[in-house]
Write a structure and sequence with these properties.
The protein is 60% helix and 16% strand. With 295 residues, it is of the alpha+beta class. Helix 1 crosses helix 3, helix 2 packs across helix 3 and helix 5 packs parallel to helix 6.
Length: 295
């Protein structure tokens, strides 16, 4: 038993020393030498320590080589399994660190993108209708408070995200005024355990207002729907869309970092647990996002 354990540790050493460096001929040579050397050691112990004077080396060698070879192979296999597990753990740690770094980078890009759009709009309004700035600033304060503190979390209660969307829509209603025809059906979410990644849904609402107000029509049509269906959140947005006015681009293709980063964040945070569909039909652009509820 002691010699068998010795062969196992010898196999581990042999695997680490030679197989992992891909020197197969050296592995065979050193393995054979180890088997012969340890077999001879076993013969000496059997003959002189355990007092078997009739034991012959050749007979002992033939009888012990298969047994000790199994021990050597066992040691090699144990080392291979150990190295494989260590490599998988290391790769998982690297991937987790990469995802965390990429997630932090994407979030840091998203908030400035949104703030840039809002401040740009405020500047335009301040020139023509400065009296409307105070209520807009109040809305902006609520928006920024959530975008600053909410964006630091990986997931937030869905009800907070819905409230954020309502504040943003209120901001846009003040800005666009009578030109907007809005249909909004947001399901009442009271359970704080139903969670979602922050600042995901708002990007589609923001793009809807951005592209709808660039149409040639006097009225801006936007509809927003949010509902819980089983374990999934369904979020659908439709808006007026005029291809010629938008330079033959689909909404989102020229939306900068916002939509691009949102899709990347969806891939990172939800993997296969989301579905995003986009299409243009009959002067309307439709976006539908289905997310698995995080609880």
């Amino acid at each position: 038993c002691l010699l068998f354990l010795l062969y196992i540790y010898a196999g581990r050493w042999l695997c680490r020393k030679w197989y992992l460096s891909r020197q197969l001929p050296a592995l065979v040579a050193y393995g054979s030498a180890l088997i012969a050397g340890l077999a001879f050691t076993g013969f000496i112990f059997t003959k002189y320590v355990f007092d078997h004077p009739n034991a012959g080396f050749i007979e002992f060698l033939y009888g012990s080589i298969p047994f000790y070879t199994v021990g050597l192979i066992t040691g090699v296999l144990v080392k291979l399994v150990s190295v494989s597990i260590q490599n998988e753990v290391r790769e998982a740690q690297v991937k987790a660190e990469q995802k965390e770094s990429e997630f932090n980078l994407l979030q840091s890009q998203l908030s400035p993108h949104f703030l840039f759009n809002v401040l740009n709009n405020l500047y335009g309004i301040s020139i023509a209708e400065h009296q409307r700035i105070p209520p807009l600033l109040l809305k902006l304060s609520n928006l920024l408070r959530y975008s600053v503190y909410g964006a630091k979390k990986q997931f937030v209660p869905l009800k907070d995200e819905v409230e954020y969307i309502k504040n943003y829509i209120g901001f846009e209603q003040i800005r666009i005024s009578d030109r907007l025809r809005l249909t909004m059906d947001l399901e009442q979410i009271d359970d704080p355990q139903i969670q979602i990644a922050p600042l995901i849904l708002i990007v589609f609402v923001e793009n809807a207002f951005k592209h709808a107000k660039n149409t040639l029509t006097k009225q801006v049509d936007i509809s927003i729907l949010l509902e819980i269906t089983g374990n999934f959140v369904r979020f659908a947005v439709s808006n007026s869309y005029h291809p010629e006015k938008n330079e033959n681009t689909m909404p989102g293709e020229d939306s900068g970092l916002g939509l691009q980063n949102t899709i990347k964040r969806l891939d990172l945070l939800y993997g296969n647990d989301y579905k995003l569909m986009r299409q243009e039909e009959g002067g309307l652009y439709h976006v539908e996002l289905i997310l698995k509820v995080k609880d």
